[in-house]
Design brief:
This protein is α/β, with parallel strands linked by helices and 376 residues long. It is built from twelve helices and five strands. Strands 2-1-3-4-5 form a five-stranded mixed beta sheet, with helices on both faces. α9 packs antiparallel against α10 and α11 runs antiparallel to α12. The longest helix is centred in the C-terminal third of the chain and has 39 residues. The chain is elongated, with a radius of gyration of 31 Å.
């Protein structure tokens, strides 16, 4: 005997009308799932679950890379496409008449371009050049008129200053290099390349550290950073000093300065990642890799940089490292102490701020957990 299901006569079956928004949402989800594939089988489910949608995954990398590339091109072209000198120190060891004529000619050629320092004789001018008080000096005495330069300042700088002083005197002058570059550093760019590589390594260290372990304890993160910094100092010293003779500074000094630069760069990048979250990587790229290296003085001195960029040359870690390494290598340790203090201040300051932020976040988390447990 078969029994049929009966409905009460006064209650018709309920029919739910279709929701067009649900259809569009499901279509979007289907399209997103169609665009995203598991190209690496075996990835953990939490990693796949946290992955961005297709649209964000396609657009965010384009926008980020384009912004960083635009900033790099704009800053470097603005700084170096047509550099002009500003308040460049120059030495003069000559009679008052010769010195006044040379200063007037240089000031007419480049107003506010030079700052002049008078020296009593050729030996005093040579000492000033070899101790990085001035990069070049005009000397006129009983032995004739000549230009003393420090080739260790780089060929571009030396050539520019020698040309300007020759034009001011109005006749060809012999140029004597009293502080030449090392044989393994014929273009004077080894310091810049070493600093740029270490800053890049510090940036990548911070990014990879936060990507791999964003919740790593502060003490463990600092320990890892110190190991990285020490290893960076030894590695650069072995390559630049021992293998290539490109940095004639003492091996230990290179280790210390480069290690401090690696520490300061990693700490600064880590702080920016901690503060800005996902935007920390492009922000750190612009601050450290673009502005920091452009203002380092490794390509041209700060006196050749535009007014909006040159102030960074006195405070940024790459600039401090370039000054310290160049001074230790060529100029009787000029600027070395100040450079190390600047780098140490960056490292300690950034780590202190990061520690404070971590403590504040921990206290907020503990307070939130306590409120949840008590029902408030």
């Amino acid at each position: 005997m078969h029994h049929a299901t009966e409905f009460p006569p006064d209650v018709p079956p309920r029919i739910t009308p279709p929701d067009p928004r649900a259809d569009s949402a499901s279509d979007g989800a289907r399209h997103a799932r169609h665009a995203l594939v598991d190209s690496e089988p075996g990835l953990p489910a939490p990693v796949l679950a946290a992955a961005a949608g297709a649209r964000k995954a396609m657009l965010v990398p384009v926008a980020t890379a384009l912004a960083i590339g635009t900033a790099f091109v704009a800053v470097y072209l603005a700084a170096f496409h047509a550099p002009s000198v500003r308040h460049q120190p120059l030495g003069i060891a000559a009679s008052d008449k010769v010195a006044a004529r040379a200063e007037l000619a240089l000031n007419n050629a480049a107003p506010d371009g030079y700052t002049f320092y008078r020296y009593p004789d050729a030996e005093a001018a040579r000492q000033a050049v070899t101790h990085d008080e001035v990069p070049a000096a005009l000397v006129a005495d009983s032995r004739g008129t000549r230009i003393l330069v420090a080739g260790a300042q780089g060929p571009s700088t030396v050539s520019s200053l020698a040309t300007a002083m020759t034009a001011a005197v109005g006749k060809p002058l012999p140029v004597k290099d009293v502080q030449p570059l090392a044989a393994g550093d014929s273009r004077g760019l080894s310091v810049f390349y070493a600093a740029f590589g270490v800053v890049l390594a510090g940036f990548l260290f911070a990014v990879s550290s936060y990507q791999i372990a964003p919740r790593l304890r502060f003490a463990a993160r600092v320990t890892s950073m110190l190991v990285f910094s020490a290893a960076s100092g030894v590695m650069v010293a072995l390559i630049a000093h021992t293998a290539m003779n490109a940095l004639p500074a003492p091996f230990a000094v290179i280790c210390v300065v480069v290690g401090l630069l690696a520490w300061a760069s990693a700490a600064a990048a880590g702080l920016l990642l901690r503060v800005f979250g996902p935007l920390g990587m492009p922000v750190a790229s612009v601050v450290l890799l673009i502005l920091g290296n452009a203002a380092s003085g490794g390509i041209l001195p700060a006196t050749f940089l535009p007014a909006w960029l040159s102030p960074l040359a006195s405070v940024m870690p790459p600039a401090a490292a370039v000054r310290g390494l160049r001074g230790a290598a060529y100029f009787h340790d000029a600027h070395l102490t100040g450079a190390m203090l600047t780098l140490a201040a960056w490292g300690l300051g950034c780590l202190t701020l990061q520690y404070v932020l971590d403590r504040v976040a921990a206290r907020r988390s503990a307070a939130g957990s306590a409120d949840f447990a008590t029902g408030y």
